[in-house]
Amino acid sequence: MKKNLALIIGLLVVFSFTGCSAKDTSSSKSVAVSSQKVIEDSSAKQDKPSEDKDNSTKDQASTVKDTKEAEKPKEPVKPTAPASDARTSTTVSNKSTTSNNSTKAQPAPVVTNVSGKVIVIDPGHANRSNLEKEPIAPGSSQMKIKDGGGAEGVVTKTSEQSINLKVAFKLRDLLQSRGYTVVMTKTREDQSLGNVERAEIGNKANAALVIRIHADSADTSSAKGASMLVPAAINENTKAIYAASKNYGAAILNTMVNEVGMKNRGVIESSDMTGFNWSKVPVVLVEMGFLSNVEEDKLLSSQAYQDKLAKGLADGINQVIK
Ligand SMILES: [Zn+2]
């Protein structure tokens, strides 16, 4: 009898261990983090200050950061479905991607046959302003400063560049897990690049898309929501990329806004952004909400919200670049 009891207990112990180890294996398989094959921008090493936010042409670059453009939103543009390539088989790959993926994020259908497609991610601003000037467009005599500096959270005091960089990393991981090749223009807050230099990274990579990551700020705390800036057709470069940039920008913005559940301020054409005017490849700049708005400031500082933003951007990119 005692022997049997001991046997039963023994079996129970074995079973419970089996359960544990099963759990362990299942959790360990989610550690398949995407290989960090980021082509770290070689040019970023040169300690040239860069900028991000093209807008502040003025020298005391403080007040209106990203706001200028975003304050005059135009009508939202309907995304046009990317024609072509109906052959793309949209295989669902449920690889859990990053270690810090948001738990609630639902796995979206993922296009996996995008290898060879290069997405350049340009996280906005450095941790210092850069008042060096550069031509606003090829052949232009109009000079504009490289970086007026990022915005700051009205209550959290979080710096815009830190949020931009965090979302950029999350977006990079998501895109890599879906098969894209990702090039980051920078990976540290203290890297400051000019806008021409940033644009050249996209040009050299022959990027399918350059996405510039920013958060907005305004004088009025009531301003909120996301917008997408795209190049206006003003020179040879931007005429060639205007339509694609606008279509991509609209689709990506609408996807992100719908997934995150935020106000849609629409797509805005901009003719005075150096980083746009020098680009020979489709380029968009997302403003992910207002750091001058109490509610959005708090949200933008939260990791869960950053996860949602990154996923919305990745899903939007998936729709148009395939
Ligand atoms: Zn910015």
From TrEMBL:
What does UniProt give as the signal peptide span?
A: 1-22
Q: Which SMART domains does this entry report, sorted A to Z?
A: Ami_3 (SM00646)
Q: Per the record, where are the segments of Low complexity compositional bias?
A: 22-37, 78-104
Give positions of region: Disordered. Answer: 22-110, 129-152
Keyword field contains Hydrolase: yes
The family database entries (InterPro entries) matched by this protein are listed as:
MurNAc-LAA_cat (IPR002508), N-acetylmuramoyl_amidase_3 (IPR050695)
| Name of the featured protein | N-acetylmuramoyl-L-alanine amidase
Q: Name the source organism.
A: Clostridium omnivorum
